[in-house]
Amino acid sequence: MLQFIAKRLGLALLVALTVSIISFSLLFLSGDPAAALAGETATDQDVEAIRKLYGFDRPMLVQYWDWLSGAMTGDLGESYYFKLPVAGLIADRLQITMLLGVCGITFALLTAVPLGVVAAIRPNSVIDRLALFLSVAGQAMPSFWFGLILIVVFSIKLGWLPPSGTTTWAHFIMPTIVLGYYAMPAIMRLTRAGMLEVLSSDYIRTARAKGAPEATVLFKHALRNAIIPVVSLAAVQMGFMLGGSIVVESIFALHGAGYLAWESIARNDLPTVQALILVFSLFYIVFTFLSDVLNAWLDPRMRAG
Amino acid sequence: MSDPLLTVRGLTINIPVGGGILHAVRGIDFDLRRGETLCIVGESGSGKSLTSLAVMGLLGGRIDRRARQMEFDGIDLTGAGSRAMRRLRGDRMSMIFQEPMTSLNPAYTIGDQLTEALLLHRKVGREAARARAIELLEKVGITAAASRLGQYPHQLSGGLRQRVMIAMALMCEPELIIADEPTTALDVTIQAQILRLLVDLTREMDMAMILITHDLGVVARVADKVAVMYAGELVETGSATDVFNAPMHPYTRGLLRCIPQPGKTERGARLGTIPGIVPSLVGGVTGCPFRTRCDQAVERCRDDIPRHEPDPGHAFRCVHETGHNPAEVQP
Amino acid sequence: MSDAQTSAPVLELRGVTKTYSVKQGLFGRPKPLTAVNDVSLSLARGEVLGLVGESGCGKSTLAKILLGLEAPTQGEVLVDGQAVLASDRRALARRIQPIFQDPYSSLNPRKPIADIVSLPLRVHDIGDSASRDKAVREILDIVGLPARVMQTYPSQMSGGQRQRVAIARALIMKPEIVICDEPTSALDVSVQSQILNLLGDLRREFGLTYLFISHDLAVVEHLATRVAVMYLGRIVEQADTAGLFDTSRHPYTRALLNSVLTPDAGLGVPDTELGMDYPNPIAPPPGCHFHPRCPRAMTHCASTAPRPVPTPDGHVECHLYDTENGRDTGPALHMKEPA
Amino acid sequence: GKADDTLKAAFTKELENVDSYFNSSREGVVLQRAIWDGLIYRDPATNEYKGNLATDWTWIDDTTLELKLREGVTFHNGEPFNADDVVYTVNFVADEANGVKTQRNVNWMKSAEKVDDYTVRILLKEPFPAAIEFLSGPVSMYPDEYYAEAGPTGMGLKPVGTGPYKVTEVVPGQHFVLEKNENYHDSPKGQPEIGKIDIRTIPDVNTQIAELFNGSLDLIWQTPADQAEKLAAMDQFTVANESTMRIGYLTLDAAGRTGADNPFTKLKVRQAVAHAIDREALVSALLKGKSQVISTACFPSQFGCAQDVTSYEYDPEKAKALLAEAGYPDGFETDYYAYRDREYAEAISSFLNAVGIKTNFNMLQYSALRELRMKEGSPVSFQTWGSYSINDTSAITSQFFKFGSLDDSRDQEIKDWLDVADSSTDPAEREEYYRKALQKIADQAYWVPMFSYNTNYVFTKEVAYTPTPDEVLRFTTMRWN
Amino acid sequence: MSVATPDPLLAEIIGPTPGQMLRRRVFGHRGLLIGAVVLALLMLVAILAPLLAPHDPYAQSLLERMRPPVFLGGDWNHPLGTDHLGRDYLSRLIYGARVSLLIGVVAAAISGVIGTAMGVAAGYFGGRVDAVVTFLINVRLAMPVVLVALAVVAILGGSLQVVIVVLGLLLWDRFAVVMRSSTLQVRGREYVAAARAVGCSTPRILLSEIMPNIVNNLIVVVTLEMAHAILLEAALSFLGLGVQPPTPSWGLMVSEGKNMMLFEPWLVLIPGAILFVLVLAINLMGDGLRDVTAPENRS
Lengths: 305, 331, 339, 481, 299
Ligand SMILES: Nc1ncnc2c1ncn2[C@@H]1O[C@H](COP(=O)(O)OP(=O)(O)OP(=O)(O)O)[C@@H](O)[C@H]1O
Ligand SMILES: Nc1ncnc2c1ncn2[C@@H]1O[C@H](COP(=O)(O)OP(=O)(O)OP(=O)(O)O)[C@@H](O)[C@H]1O
Ligand SMILES: [Mg+2]
Ligand SMILES: [Mg+2]
Prior knowledge:
A: 13 helices, flat, D: 15 helices
């Protein structure tokens, strides 16, 4: 198990490194960072001075190395725009994004898993059809559109929920639903498929042959096995959700990391965008790493292997 | 002789499938007494597993099972609710499945799974259940039984798992044990060991056993009574000696000619064959299902087929009283 | 001496070893697994060599090496005295063809039977489409299938019919050697006998040479002229069929023979006298691989690997028959319980 | 709302740093005017200069300005205001190494000297006619001790000034809370009335409106014309509109920087472009409010912005004819760039398409477009310029026609005229030379000036406010109804 | 010449051909049929856009801005009214189908080619190739798609081509994953071994033995990724960094309509709803195809 963790960690680091290279080089292809930094009202001299000041005239490899070694020690550079350390900036904004992500995935799991289980127990029942409908609709629903409709209905027409901001829990309800609904269909389908497969497996027949009550069969024998892949998927979805929170944050004016990313792209705030891509990737990497470890722990076959 | 432990009369199983109704099992009868071993033999798809699952009450909800009579020790199984069936299963009758690799839950230890049935059906503590599990593991020939309890199924080889399955089936000292092809997935050497174990244990514990297999060799060595199944029907039943030494139904005879028998069949010579393929059981099925492949078939085979009982306990269903078409010259 | 050994071998294996490296778990360190261990065999024209052994002992791996689907780690395969690796694989394909175990997986479900059967001809650019069509009809007729199956798909056929198609495909290029890897183990007995008969007939008709892999000794006895018994990658005994079944030497061969259940009512289930645990092929027991299960194991069996000892009609690898090396040098070990 | 004496307002853009020397956005100016004071103040209504932190100022010579400071003023943190603060602030911002974001605002100053505790001299690098304008605009006074310690970052997070409002909370870029400065000095800005200003950044206009409906905002601004119109039609809100100094224009590659054969090097083509666009329609249908059609390359109120130059009426037929004369009877295809106001840019492009100039429309980030224009130029692009709210033609025309990297015409004569106008201290001479330059720009159609922008201010009926034309929210002049 | 015993019963064919079975299942699958019909209709609309659209979707008329749709009192000249530049809304919707479908099809094609090549190579060759591909998949999955796509589009400028290529280059992961596992599965089948034993070359095996057996999975992924690409384009356009105006993209139309959403909700409702319907149809079809082809994989 330790060896598994070590190897898995090595792979995670390698992935992270590759992503860092890609994000760094990708954004360096963008327009003149000095001009971006100088802003709309700057003169040519301003731009030139800034180019020197920030070292944009050095070779790219040197800049990458600087950036990477900084990143290792938690120094992600200084935002061109805010003139503040990116790390602090992101840490601030991440709280909201993380909160949103946690709420979203919780919402998704709380709706998807029970629905999936019931749908698998009663295939073709009303609930199964409802679950299928919800998941098909969820996959097709453009989340920006869904969010806008929620605002119109619940904030404007009914006046129940605040349309933007983060001050109270009520502010998080609509964003959570929009974000969670994005992850729900996949989790629901996997739960349903996993349960269906497990329920038709030989060891479920064995459990029934022992005279185990249906609840024991379902929850002790079946769900335990069906849930293992769901854990991985939830981790993956959580990673995607954080990266995909841009849309939701921009609709509900949540000043989270996703919104910061969007604005930073528009402002050509390179250090922030680079750092955000890296941070979002790291989240994905960490989540999948944890889920793999959790999986290995949940699944005795992997625990021994 | 005592009353039969299990009586089955007119068991019929219908499964709705895409193209209609699959008449998978059609009106089969058999009895089983305590301590007796019944072997159901037949080709793949002939309905053996369905029959056993029907007895256990483990057919899925979609599948329609009916019987004129199906009693276990006086308990009417056709009318029993799911709760009553649950109380029987794992306690008074238990089952061993074909695939030892997949029949154990990968997520729980051997110990958990062994003790489950006992904890469910008997008022015993965990410790007592563990002790019983260890005792049974030793009985099925597993050494270091205590340490095995903490292991997971994937850590055991196929042979060992099948032994665990057997131990699991025996936890509550059932009166009836149903083994559905318990050795098909195993190597020949392991097969012999497992079969020996099963035979010894049933004898020792005075259990009745239904053993399902497609291997005539196994049947001959293990069975007290044999039931030959073809396309959902029992075409011939009788004691092992009767069926193997004096097979009456053309299908039974054909099967026996098909297998090479060291010492009996001439090496390299042509084996007997049964031509053709099994008929589809979807839709209306009448007459003898074997008639399309039978070398004794006559026009009457399309009608109802009578049952003959040349010896007490030895019965077969064929239009010909002897199993041979009298019109054909017999060798 | 059987006449098989008098004629020159069409196919020969010399010291063939195949080692896989297998990973355990997702990230375990790869470990070597010797699936086939220093095997030497030869097939004479027209003979049927039966290869028996437990699951996982390396039978299929050996077959794959013969077919050129796997390269041996060591040793060489000779066809007509020529090393195979040097020669063209396509040339090899014309002479050696396989029949696999699972008729449900050995036919491409997306292709009609005519395409499947004519594939070898098309790959080797033999004939034009008309002549190929004719060849397919002929070979289908030979294996007992009517021409009208040509346009059907495998999913429309029964197991027996499919296996006939597989045989037709193997034979359409008139190979000399057919490797049958458990060709009947997925079939019902009534179909099995049809296929066995067909294989026998074809052999007689076309003078084919078979390597016949099976774990069913009764079938092997019926069909094979010579038998090789495999255990954990090694051929532990090799003999003419008659000899083997009358006087088997290796304790493992005996156990195998003992486990054959013939349909004789009343005989009961025999005692194989074998320990039951199949050893882990990644960490095979030292010395004689079989010793932990052997009812006649001696102390040095656990330390010294036995050498092949020639017998009148083959060889055996067992200390019991090695007159020079360690016979009766120690007391018999007790039969081992599974670990 | 009025009930809790808190005005809730929204910013559209995330403000990078509250420190006014380190941001360059409107929002920054709004906060600057609330938190800090300049030495001088220009009355937005009369354009008259009044003393603020300085009570009096005199030119010692062309490059030396002496100012008398107001006494008894304290910063929000209790630090008293005196000459040291002015000297420190001026010397800090004038030093290029300190990286003040908009160098133009400060780089005309060389340094400052203390004469006594309440008298300072500001030394200029060279004569600079707009000095007083700048001192009453972007140059505000910081507390020397605090600023020395906190620096721009600290100032951005915890701003300290002398202004009518003090800052009680800053969440960078997102949220600012201001409170009335109870002992605000007797400034021409007037005394603040509203107790608390709560500003949130809400990027999306739509969300702002939703919040306005919801009662969680009292005031929004920079609201697009269409929404403002709809909101005006509802009776809960007041919609005020004021012009701004920003103008929109097309710049054409007359110098042939994108290629000597570029059609825009031909005068007739440029004139055709000018005739092709219905600027009246743009103003009346899209910009609305107090926007006006303009024909000169500057904002009309700016000093020197002559209005009587050649103007081109909307006449697509004439445009086509001109194109044909220039050798493009079937029109031509060209790249067309813009960086903001997508819908205006789109509307313009469709006018061009209508006369046969097929445009490949590219919307780029400001920096990307700027880089493109600096490096290789662009055939035609839609640009806007706000002149830093400086009421002088030098803030716009001289920026773009003196061979800078964004000069697409490169006309030596114009440059010479502008040089004279920019450095002269004689207003009449300046006016004359600006007129010459502007006349030639119009004749040559180097630019196609189109319209001035306007800003909408939307607030609830509880709020009373009259916006000013310089596009700055003045909290000090807001009252509860 | 027949070596085998004549056995007339062997001629009996048990089942219908795979084609017949497929047809039967397709016509028995309601979701698939609905999806296919709706998709076909939308495709038709896209193809016939010039005939169907009442106006030029790019033609502006500043005098006719923001006309209401007929159901809100507008006239039939502009059945769905006009947008903020006075362009006919219905015509833009109709042309929007072209943009969405084009993006879906081309992006899925690009990513399909990349992902399939990688997945099949990884599955078939295993070993180091597999390790590299798996690693690349991991890297790709770790990159936040929306963020990276936004950044790249922002850098390169958002034109239809750029958006398509960026999406195509970003969405290959599912293709690679699915194709890898299906290839792995098929590679182990005995008919592949048989083809190799016959002497088939590797390309031939890949093309004629492996591809036909994984192509149904491929089609399912194609539909999923088409839907994915269409939604992503809409999201990018919504965020202002996707397809650029005046191209009529539905995402862009939602984005443009958003500002007036509180006053004229139909500006947002209509393009969003039609986007939803398109993606729903594609997904229904994909799900249906999976249902319909899955049983065949098993046998
Ligand atoms: N749940 C089910 N749905 C549809 N058909 C079924 C189902 N279960 C069994 N069948 C069909 O019923 C027939 C009998 O099945 P059964 O499993 O009893 O055969 P068997 O004799 O046990 O065969 P085997 O030796 O292969 O296990 C087969 O044709 C099978 O395909
Ligand atoms: N590609 C491979 N990679 C790693 N190990 C393999 C591979 N192929 C086979 N093996 C291992 O080699 C050993 C021999 O396998 P092989 O398939 O030859 O056995 P077999 O005798 O044919 O068994 P069976 O009777 O089950 O077909 C087994 O332990 C198997 O796990
Ligand atoms: Mg069965
Ligand atoms: Mg094998």
